[in-house]
Specification:
about 425 residues; Rossmann fold; 5-stranded parallel beta sheet; 14 strands; 17 helices; 3 domains
Length: about 425
């Protein structure tokens, strides 16, 4: 059922509640990860066979970029190349630059960045082979300068990776690809096995089991974020075609888990009713309408009526969506009031699907309300930040009294001596 409610109703708070770590996923992740730490490849193969149906011995995928390109529809090849070019351009432009500043007595301090040596990316491939995620993860790692990029994706009983997904991985710069999905992929990359050496960081979206596994391996490796089912919020003042609004709400509801969330905030009840009717009408034409119906049955589509755009924006900020569309007049002005959103799409000509596939920023984004504390994936997530300080003698002499004072307060005599001995 799609509900229409006013701001202030308790239904909004209930809609906003999204548990990040289901207990069943946590238990399953703990069991599988423990086995992989103990048994390595043997456990990985056992769980690949159990959960994915593939019983072959070879987990690593070998493929040739040129051969794949010749076998794929040229229209699809052009699309993948277009997305890769745009995402890479955005990634390179967004990289943080090293900087320095002068210290008071002629020295210098600043920051510089170095790429990680070996990272892993997870590419979902269950209900849909997410070729776009290959672009939106591997391209960023490559732009950051990472030399070894491991990619894992489920391949089902046949062990055949979708050729477009595989092509996208190779084009983006993956150096190793494994037909391994789920918790077992996270465990293999995090702990390392004979087939696959451990990585330093794991990035990429996944279902609740992948998310639980990533959380549990944090510390053995770094992770980008914890992410769950897809979600979208659309704020509209009635100035944008209601068919477009409905299509955008459905774009996230079709992902497949059944736990997706689509929030629409309107400024009139008449608009809310029209959008609801349009969602139900368009849904009938979708091949994945059964998946959308599951979302609706679980209350995953909600329409809120606010007094005005300002009040509506506060509703969205509290929801902290993965994707936020501002479908209003003066959308760029409204943008200034955004506090919590993974990615923002401003204006009627910017559907969220542009961000999913081709716009430039990565579509790997925080979900479940985590946008109020996490950011979307960037190439800097695949680099290490280093601060540096290069004091002159004058800098040290000027700061020695402060160093000695803190050392005395904290009872760390050797700390103080390390400065004093240089100044006497």
């Amino acid at each position: 059922m799609i509900r229409i409610v006013q701001t202030g109703e308790r239904a909004i708070e209930k809609f906003n509640a999204r548990p990040a770590f289901p207990e069943a996923a946590e238990r399953a992740a703990a069991e599988v990860l423990a086995a992989i730490r103990q048994e390595g490849d043997r456990a990985v193969r056992r769980y690949v066979a159990k959960f994915e149906g593939f019983t072959g011995r070879r987990l690593k995928v070998e493929a040739d970029l040129a051969a794949l390109e010749n076998a794929i529809d040229p229209r699809i090849v052009r699309a993948v190349k277009d997305a890769h070019r745009r995402v890479r351009r955005f990634a390179v432009a967004s990289l943080r630059k090293p900087w320095t500043m002068k210290t008071p007595k002629g020295g210098s301090a600043g920051e510089f960045f170095t790429p990680m040596d070996r990272v892993g990316v997870y590419i979902p491939g269950g209900t849909a082979p997410l070729a776009s995620t290959s672009i939106h993860t591997v391209t960023l790692a490559k732009a950051a300068g990472v030399r070894e990029i491991v990619a894992c994706t489920p391949a089902g009983r046949t062990g055949e990776v979708n050729p477009v997904l595989l092509y996208a991985l190779l084009l983006a710069g993956a150096t190793e690809i494994y037909r391994v999905g789920g918790i077992q992929a996270v465990g293999m990359m995090a702990f390392g096995t004979k087939s696959c050496r451990k990585v330093q960081k794991i990035a990429g979206p996944g279902n609740a089991f992948v998310t639980a596994a990533k959380r549990q391996v944090y510390g053995y490796v770094a992770i980008d974020q914890v992410a769950g089912p897809s979600e979208i919020a659309v704020l509209t003042d009635g100035s944008v075609d209601k068919r477009w609004i409905a299509a955008d709400l459905l774009s996230q509801a079709e992902h497949g888990s059944g736990w997706e969330k689509s929030l629409c905030v309107c400024t009139s009840r008449a608009d809310a009713a029209a959008i609801k009717a349009e969602v139900l009408r368009q849904m009938k034409d979708l091949p994945r309408r059964a998946l959308v119906q599951r979302v609706i049955d679980r209350g995953g589509i909600l329409i809120v009526v606010a007094r005005d755009v300002a009040e509506g924006l506060e509703v969205v900020n509290r929801f902290a969506p993965e994707h936020f569309e501002i479908m209003t007049k003066d959308a760029l002005k409204v943008l200034r009031g955004v506090r919590s959103a993974g990615a923002v799409f401003a204006g009627p000509w910017t559907p969220e699907s542009a961000g999913d596939f081709v716009a430039g920023p990565s579509h790997v984004l925080p979900t479940g309300g985590a946008a109020n504390m996490f950011n979307g994936l960037t190439p800097d997530d695949f680099r290490r930040r280093h601060s540096f300080v290069a004091f002159t003698e004058g800098d040290l002499r000027a700061t020695a009294p402060t160093i000695e004072a803190f050392a005395a307060v904290e009872g760390l005599d050797a700390h103080g001596r390390a400065a004093t001995i240089r100044c006497t």
